[in-house]
Amino acid sequence: MLLEALTLQLGYNATLVAIGAALLGIAAGAAGTFLFLRKRALVSDAISHSTLPGVGLAFLVMAALGGDGRHLAGLMLGAALTAGAGLLAMHWLTRHTRLAEDAAIGAVLSVFFGFGVVLLTVIQTVSIGRPAGLADFLLGATAGMLFGDAVLIAVAGALAVLAVWTLRRPMTLVAFDAGFAAASGIDVRRVDLAMMGLVMAVTIIGLKVVGLVLIVALLIIPPVAARFWSDRSDRVLGIAGVFGGLSGFIGAAVSATAPALPTGPIIVLTAFALFTLSMLFAPGRGLLVGWLRHHRQQRRIHLRQGLLAIAQDLPIYERYTLNLLVRAGLARPDGVPTELGRLRAAKACRDESRWAIARRMHSHEATVSRYDGLRPIEMVLTEDEIREIDRQLAEAGEGCA
Amino acid sequence: MSLRMPFGRGEEVAAAPLAELSDKPLAVRGLTVSYGQKPAVFSLDMTIEDGSMTAIIGPNGAGKSTTLKAVLGIVPRLSGVVTVYGRPLAKSRRRIAYVPQRASVDWDFPTRVIDVVLMGLARELGLLRRVNAGHRQRAFDCLDRVGMRDFADRQIGQLSGGQQQRVFLARALAQGADLYLLDEPFAGVDAATERAIIDVLKTLKAEGRTVVAVHHDLSTVRDYFDHVMMINVHKVAEGPVAEAFTEEHLQSAYGGRLAANLMDQLQLGGH
Fold it and tell me: What is the ipTM for the molecules in this complex?
């Protein structure tokens, strides 16, 4: 069943829902990247919670007009209106009062959400329309989704991806250096509003699939996970899109196998799994690589210090250093260097003096900034450069060559 | 010109004199900026001569950086008119390059040196144009001018403070402007960087471009700049270094905060 779901063999509707969820995930990961880079991740939480009163109001209006009350496009429109109102309220509070953004987020989020819960309760008690399924907007559900709804989500998701792609350049510039962006003539406020608008769009598209409580996770976890993989914003953007898309797709497919499984939590758990894998195993910024790098560096530094001590006939104080030297066959357990140890020590000492010269030569700035005291100098400088350094070394009469 | 409504609409007041300043790279009249109740800059007039190198100096909190930011529209101004080469700011953005303070950005941001320099081409690239080999070559050339070409592929967080400052300067060079506004370009940089930056700025001047820098090191004003703009919320003095950079003006701008021996070291002209 699970395999069938993942390979899109659960029927036309489920397939379409999974594709829609994947597109939604891509849009969320990409839009969320800019929110994350602009250090305003929590704004999305306020936006998503502000959608709830809109859902309730839209239901009431549609039911009062004699409709079903559960028409998805109508509910999304209502959600967009109150989310927009919440966004403006937050914007106004931070601009015109001395409230910091986090306080404004807290205020807007709780008030709008509280109002929404009251509305939903009223709807349940007065029993107009057919409110069954309205609570799905909290945690998301794709089971029994209409064909038209799935198409709506897929198309809107694709449009959101396109919009993020189009605006990526000004949004990156504003996120990195808003002052410079403003000085180059970019309207920072409009770019920020566009970014918030995109996040709002993703939130509303995702209401039915992920639910408003958890959509913030789909916006934030993919970029945070992607950051472990790259130091380039364009790649972080792409990887975040892929992570978001995978989370949406897997979540929707898994949830299709059991009608009682809410979609949102599954999607978020999938994103969390990707995050954990990234945090632990990503090359570059992952924890495991960092840990290995740290220990390898420590080992090499101890070895280097030991060799330099040998070269200068100094005692080796640290047990760890001596152990490393002994294991490498460079010294005897009593601290007396072997023949090989003396040879390597002389070389280490000569390289150290060479580096000292290289550091004084401006042309080697880029190379010298990579100096870690460990890499053999032959690996970073050419033979000619080393010869020139040796010439200066001899001239200065320094070093222990 | 002597009577000005400080909080009035600047356009009305300055409408007449603007015409006579039409050829100046930068003309500011009646600029007031306020964060909260106390003005950070009050009714400031400033005229930057074509091809000059001007230092904006003054004590901490004098409104030096604020003046630059207000000129560029980064912080809102309460009053005042700004013209760049005789035209309103919005119409002359492409003639201005800006180097913000290094501390104003997060250097852990996921971007490489070359990408930062390419940001200088943002106006030209617009939303959709692809970065091609020509753009890349120009960015490399700008990095070359500040001695940072070998660093093009590094993540910006791996650079030293001085190197970061040079990358910011390279980005401004990529803007290909006529008027360069720099906010404390020499703050906290090493000697090699300071030399590299001043060389670039002097080359810009030799090419006939105009440089304005917020500067905090009084001992180098004479060596680096030919004009000085001394402020402490209000304007204190403005003009060629020989005329404006005097002990009297410094005392008036900095109050008693300058040590007497510093005055001797500066070998001031005038009084």
Answer: 0.88
